[in-house]
Amino acid sequence: MTDRVVPPGARLRRRPTKQGVVLSEELIVATALRLIEEHGADALSVRRLGRALGADPSSLYRYFRHTDDLMLAVADELIGSTLRTWRPTGDWRADLRELGLRMHAGALAHPRAAVLSAHRVTGRVHEIAAVEAMLGVLRGAGFPDREAVRVYHAFVDQALAFGALDSAGAALPPAAREAEAEVWRATYARLPADTHPNIAATAGHLMATMRHSSYPAALDLLLSAAAARLEQVRVRAGE
Fold first, then answer.
1. Is the pTM here over 0.90, yes or no?
2. Disulfide: which of 41, 71, 234, 235 matches 239 by Cβ 3.0-4.6 Å?
3. What phi and psi, each to the nearest 5 degrees, are found at residue 18?
4. For 146-169, what is each residue's pLDDT tens digit?
């Protein structure tokens, strides 16, 4: 794609595509997201998208300047899908925990897209809304502005990193995932206590937990640290 995007007011395609649908930014993003999960990054080609939409590939330039512009829109849609049903309750710790788990689940629902987009900053409507909402939760809890940004940064990076990590694992073929799980049973569980006492002592726990994501535990640790930091702030303020 090139820098030929059409202003929003002039984008409407009045005639349906060959498949009987009217193009829109939302339809293109949804189709791109589906194709990414089927084909990976190669899905974001004008030709493949046009074929899936039953449209002339050049018509996509009316909505997106280039494929990276479309990738940012896909990343923003992943954020939007997480936010649509999340409603803060006023309990900052519970609210952020719920949001973090939703972000992680959203990544696992679209693992290939999550891996491609976790490191991107979109500057689009859903991302802006998410930043505003999370900072609002933290500032409303009493975190000073510098601390609110510090916790927000750690929270978001942790959620995105675990989402990408666990999505990469989920995208492996089932046989490869099972082979990795077998390593804990066939290798680590059989290491002798005289040479590897710590592994031998915890082998049962390793087999039970290492095949599952540690994100919930890591999230709880982060929120506990943030709560302790907030208590320090309050003590210093004389509350």
1. no
2. 234
3. -60, -25
4. 999 999 999 999 999 999 999 999
